[in-house]
Amino acid sequence: MSERAQLLVAIADDELILGWRDSEWTGIAPFLEEDVAFSSIAQNEIGHARALYELAARDLETTADELAFDRRPEDYRCSELVQLRLPEWERTIARHVLYEEADAARLRELMASDDVELAGLAAKIDREEAYHRMHAQMWADRLRDEPRFAAALDELRPLVDLRDGHTPELTELWEQMTEVRRSVPGATW
Amino acid sequence: MIYEVFRQERKGQAFQHAGSIEAPDERFAEWYAREQYGRRGESTALWVVPREAVHPIEDFVDELNRNYHRVDGYPLKEKLKEARERAGTASRRNR
Prior knowledge:
The complex is a heterodimer. By secondary structure, chain A is mainly alpha-helical. Chain A is 72% helix and 0% strand. Chain A has one domain (3-183): Ferritin (Up-down Bundle), CATH 1.20.1260. Chain A has helices spanning 3-23, 32-60, 64-69, 80-83, 89-111, 116-142, 147-156, 168-183. Chain A is globular. Chain B is α+β, with helices and mostly antiparallel strands. In chain B, strands 2-1-3 form a three-stranded antiparallel β-sheet, with helices on one face. Chain B is elongated and about 70 Å long. Chain B starts with a strand and ends in an 8-residue tail after the last helix. The A-B interface holds A 31-34, 36-37, 40, 131, 134-135, 138, 142 and B 21-24, 27-28, 31-32, 34-36, 39.
């Protein structure tokens, strides 16, 4: 796999898995408006994953779906930060804040890249991420004095750059995520 | 806090009430409003207004029944009929 494809797939994996984890709040967020908002963020992330997989799929002569769903869980290159199931709102928000911070830095780098296609896609994604960052910042301000939020930030920060390990939670998520697709081998949906 | 959201469908058009949202503060309100009333390209602009800023008026006194203030105070049908009778040009239906 080329370096470019590897990079694209790693970012796409982050966005896909985070999108999945965020979507677990649909229907159970702390209040209705936030439910809509957070579900929308989840959808955006999966949309970004799709665009990134598509670009990688062209280089690798495969399809976005195959990259997203037909690899083994141990082949995913996503950060451990996004792998965890976080059923506590303050930990979810801590992840959101940490992810957006790291993602912003990554997007800045990609936008400055000589690879015009990659820089263009990064700019597009960044225009949506700007609203995610705004959302993360609002929540960070709101939870600033909450000790559980501070503890969650400390707990999760070291995971941001861990990409080689695979948590059992990722395998569990992968089982759910690919269950339908695996149920009929070779089917096109 | 409840915020009332008004949206403008196309530039130059009047803003219309879109609905209301609950949010902890103004920043959240703006974010939620954008999400709920703007993300499908259905609005060119939104107004987000705290509900307390809205002064509702619900009492409209008309003790003397001055129906000429109202559109339905002018039943055109009757007036038309009278005029036609005067002019001798009753509509075909009434002949």
